[in-house]
## 1
Amino acid sequence: MKNDKSTVGGQRSITVLGATGSIGDSTMDLVRGGGERYRVEALTAHSNVEALAKLSREFNVRFAAIADPTRLGELKDALSGTGIECGAGESAIIEAAARPADWLMAAVSGAAGLKPALAAADRGATIALANKECLVCAGDLFMQRAVRGGACILPADSEHNALFQALSSGNRDELTRVIITASGGPFRTWSAADIEQATLEQALKHPNWSMGQKITIDSASMMNKGLEVIEAAYLFALEPDQIDVLVHPQSIVHGLVEFSDRSVVAQLGAPDMRTPIAHCLGWPDRISGPAERLDLAKIGQLTFEAPDFTRFPGLRLAFEALRTGHGATTVFNAANEVAVAAFIAKKIRFGAIARLVEATLEQWARAGNLAPLESADEAIAVDHSARNLAATLLPQIAAKAS
Ligand code: NDP
Ligand code: MG
């Protein structure tokens, strides 16, 4: 691979955090396709010992880490005789991230991915960042740590990867606006009353993308797009007014960048996460990707709509939290994680997800808790407190009719 400073002897070492998830699966598929080009240093999972052990054996990894500390014995048994080192608990996931590897995929779901991603940033890794919650939680503090550590952050989220690709068409100071697209999710055409009552099964039926459970629910509420607006602001140092959301049900155009001369540059591709991940894996070169070729004649029509901030209040709340700053996006993310877990556990209705997030943000501000965050540790502390606050507010939100 030409121009690739992180390739030694033609082989690149890889670590995948969240290897057993949807992004992990797509990443391992690409690594598998690359054959001898890659060597896997470490893989991690939360509790799925079976899948982690299977991948660890297949790729003959050096270190396998499971976040659930009670599963260490099982993992050791599953890998006995292989010589693969095993670890368990949060510290083992952080160790996996800290071990030397040329390229790391950060694909843990939720803010739980922040500390490991920071460990990778501190050692100056090349990080393909899928875990958007970690950016939303720690804002530009994460980006500052990455700069200090000499890390290279490559956006793996499809919209941000599209922006990253389109941005190379101009200079940063010539950028006037970015547009991230949204499929609109399964409830795009539903009334507010129907969205309020949507079931878990309905929320898990995404029209275009196959993804993990949490992000699929976030897509149905459009909280995912809210998280992505915040993610774009921190990744590319943008003001809230420079970020627009456009509903595009076909999910073919992923992101667009407008420059000062009013040229708009877009990135297109089939809705398959292996394309943005392949871009990150090959960067600064291009590798061959396994996604379906784009056949625009077959697709026929690409359509676009303005987002509806009333039926999807999560999107409004994300812009408000971004404008508020001072830890509000950390609170937004923490409350949403609590709300989604409560919805999955059937403790609240779908419509109550945004209400819990709004109530947590309001209560947080009313209590005078908004303050500039000075460090990633402070962001983690705010994340914990905001989760506790959301859990306290949960029963009254659950009891209240819409
Ligand atoms: P999944 O739920 O499919 O996978 C999550 C992975 O993280 C699994 O390996 C899981 O292990 C592990 N994990 C979960 N919780 C913890 C924890 N507390 N500590 C350590 N590991 C943990 O999620 P996705 O792959 O869908 O998403 C991962 C991230 O990528 C999210 O931040 C999401 O927003 C982002 N993303 C996902 C996209 C997609 O298409 N799926 C697109 C763009 C971004 P186990 O299997 O054992 O539970
Ligand atoms: Mg996305």
Note: Residues 157-159, 228 surround magnesium ion (ligand 2) (CB under 6 Å).
## 2
Amino acid sequence: MKKKHFNRIAAAALASAMLMSSANAVFAADDSAATGKVIFSFDFEDGDVSAFCNRGENDTTELSAADEGGIDGKYLLASGRSKEWNGPAFRLDDKLEPYTEYYISAKVKGKYYTNVTLSNQFDNADGVTKYNNLLQNISQQNYPTEDGWVTIPPTKISFTDEMKNVYVYFEGGTDDLFIDDFTITEVPSVEIEQDIPGLKDVFVNDFKVGTALTPAALSSKPTMDIVEKHFSGSITAGNEMKPDAVLDKAACQAYFEETGDDTVPQITFGAAKPLLNYCQKNNIPVRIHTLVWHSQTPDWFFKVGYADDGEWVDKETMLARMENYIKAYFEELIKLYPDIDFYACDVVNEAWNDQGAPRNPGEQGDHGSNNSAWVQVFGDNSFIEPAFTFARKYAPEGCKLYYNDFNEYMDGKLNAIVEMATDLKAKGVIDGIGMQSHLDARQSLDSSFPSVNMYNKALDKYAELGLDIQITELDATTPENPTDADFKVQADYYKGIWDSIYAHKDSISAVIVWGVTDDGSWRAKKYPLLFDADYKAKPAFHSIIEGHDVPISTNPPKTTESPVTTTTTGDTLYGDANCDGKVEIADATLILQFLTNKDEYSLTTQGMKNADVSGNGDGVTAQDALTIQQVDAGIYKASDLPINK
Ligand code: 9MR
């Protein structure tokens, strides 16, 4: 990479011009089909490491450009690291665009035993600093090396506009780290299919069609294009509105210490905010998932003093905690998002086992554990009714209340749900049943489970209750390593299930598919969704709309973001250095290329005029390229050009 032409060009041209980033980062002109356009590339040959920093006051890392032991000239040396978490770090949100996917790649060298992690740090919407690992176990053992230099494969990163102080950093061990060829490229954008109808539009007169999302999806444009076109009837937060995401342990304990009252749980929607902001902005109704569940609910919630090692509280205390939790949950949602249509809420989730009995008492344990701390404290499933009663009391108007479960077609569970729902209906506290519908398409339609017939019978039973039904988490797996034939069975199975849903449409108000593309599913290995990892509609998608009227999409086909255009003065389109009628990054690139190598790159006379956007009248300079880049970054409007007239 070091030898590539673009690096030298840009390094030279930008040495005086890169005000936007604090360093002479390389704003490159390379367009590679595999990894996308190069946005920054540092080879450190100019000795400048100022774009990198350590991780704050307590990080002892010192950064310098060194050349002893490098692959090819200089590199970034991170020395004096006294803690595993010490940097180096590189800030992203002041240089890159939110909602855009980038690849980070680099070469790293440590000791032969060093295990590096590429991590990400950011402040969330509540100003709380969060961390996550992008790539772990980067070591000489695990990745190809040249003389001990480990080549990190392009690793995806993206962020939303609510995330501030977004950094990527290298951590691991306390030895010196060497970094070279640190490169950021833009993941090539993908257009979703426009010649298929929006799923939500096909069934617009029948039921809402929606999906589940986690915040990471928000920064994937093609994913969100699919959401907008097909699933914008309803959004469920995949994890962020569950008790473990909402309950704030430190705040619970602090409140208890301050007041002596341990029945007023403290909550936060920090994790859900990016999703809820998206729904608010796009006017998308939200399903709340979920209030009372045995899983993804911390044990300390049920313990004296909210302490991990505390005793279980008594039933009375837990009832008070439950009421105050549900009250705070709804009050906070209404306060934060008065405009969102919270139209449905899973009040209680998965309380009955397949045989129709309560779960076992006990701590939560591993995922999939049958234990329930609710049963531990209440002795049985008698926590269900108060949960609904409190939800009815505090839920916003129009928010329907559901009992939600999987394997909802198994006889034992089905009967228990019907009995419970009949009672709750008589008490006026339940509105519907959520059928999760995590289904399995197998080798043949006959061996798929549940059979379409079994599923259809369950729908009949729930419909007979006179309550609403929502299909809340639909997915249907293929076998592992599926063949085309398996995808065909999956399509036929989906059609059978969907037709059965459609036949009950008078009792069904929403159908939610549990995820957007197969690779993002919780059962990714078995390709259970309607869109593949390349954002293409699968046979299953086509099968479920077959036979239905296909409306003209209410969303006009979306194209990639329209390039910025400027006002013109005579024939001059300021910023349009390459005279293609648009002002975009390519114009800045051409200016830099032109400045560094006029033999290879030229500007037309009109291009020269168009390019002179900064300090207008002083000819074409690197400052002009920077100004166009700043337009692209939203710092200036295109209509502001030329600046400094
Ligand atoms: O989709 C969720 C996945 O990201 C979590 O790892 C998992 C952990 O419990 O929960 C998944 O969602 C579950 C939902 O909340 C309830 N029904 C089963 C879903 C799949 O496990």
Note: Residues 238-239, 295-296, 367, 406, 436, 473, 522 surround 9MR (CB under 6 Å).
